[in-house]
Write a structure and sequence with these properties.
This protein is mainly beta. Helices cover 7% and strands 67% of the residues. It has helices spanning 3-14, 185-188; strands at 25-39, 44-54, 61-75, 78-92, 98-116, 120-133, 144-158, 169-183, 193-207, 210-222, 227-240. The two termini are 33 Å apart.
């Protein structure tokens, strides 16, 4: 299969988005992220990612996300993880007052990676989350617990097709992630489907341990009676040691 054919297959597989042509609410935001993984032995390691996400029109910092995990390597391409996440969400009321909601998560994850052809690296991630959402204000009692499942697929396609080991140079990244509510969906958005994130980016691998990329992420968010389409400009760094 030629590279162009492989790319076409990836686009079809990864960019399966909800069948909505127009969103009720369009937003534009910016995300910055750092993803780090470190192997400590043949079987053990850890990961961490930190993210900053803006509100619509980059008007203020909406989310701060910190997510560490302990990893177990069943094989080089099969990794299990047990992690914790803290998400701080800031908002504004209709009157302009500031709001704040903390969220704590415990999550379990399995990642399987493989090659498509000679050079395309593909990874599949299955994540189960237990979410503990706090009150939105000191005088409110609107905290709740829910569970969510996420499936993520990502392909990294080097621009140069001259080596089986991609260690340096530019690349194209394609990914998609689907979120579904498993427990207490009525507290989240009253639906089984939660959101979808489709992403395309151009990056550069500085060496085997460091990638930097920038791209466009299309976030479709299902709400109780409507839906939002968030257009995100993202800058991300990946480090592996």
């Amino acid at each position: 299969m030629q590279l162009k054919q492989k790319l076409s297959v990836l686009i079809v597989l990864l960019f399966i988005v909800p069948a909505k042509l127009f969103a009720q609410d369009n937003q534009f935001s910016g995300w910055g992220a750092w993803f780090h993984s470190q192997k400590l032995s043949d079987h053990w390691g850890y990961s961490f990612d930190g993210q900053l996400r803006s509100h619509d029109q980059i008007s203020y910092l909406k989310n701060v996300l910190l997510r560490p995990s302990a990893n177990y390597y069943f094989a080089k391409n099969k990794v299990g993880a047990l992690g914790y996440a803290y998400i701080a969400t800031s908002g504004r009321t209709a009157a302009g007052d500031k709001t704040f909601r903390p969220e704590h998560r415990i999550w379990q994850q399995y990642t399987y990676s493989h090659k498509m052809g000679k050079t395309i690296a593909v990874s599949h991630r299955f994540r189960w989350e237990q979410r503990f959402l706090g009150n939105t204000a000191a005088n409110k009692n609107d905290h709740y617990f829910s569970q969510r499942f996420r499936y993520f697929a990502r392909g990294v396609i080097p621009f140069k097709n001259d080596s089986a080991v991609f260690s340096k140079g530019p690349f194209l990244a394609l990914q998609n992630e689907v979120f579904v509510n498993i427990q207490n969906k009525n507290k989240v958005n009253k639906h089984f489907f939660d959101q979808n994130r489709a992403y395309v980016a151009v990056g550069y691998r500085i060496n085997k341990m460091i990638d930097v990329e920038t791209g466009y992420l299309n976030q479709y968010i299902k709400q109780a009676e409507s839906y939002t389409l968030n257009h995100v400009a993202q800058l991300a760094f990946y480090t592996r040691f």
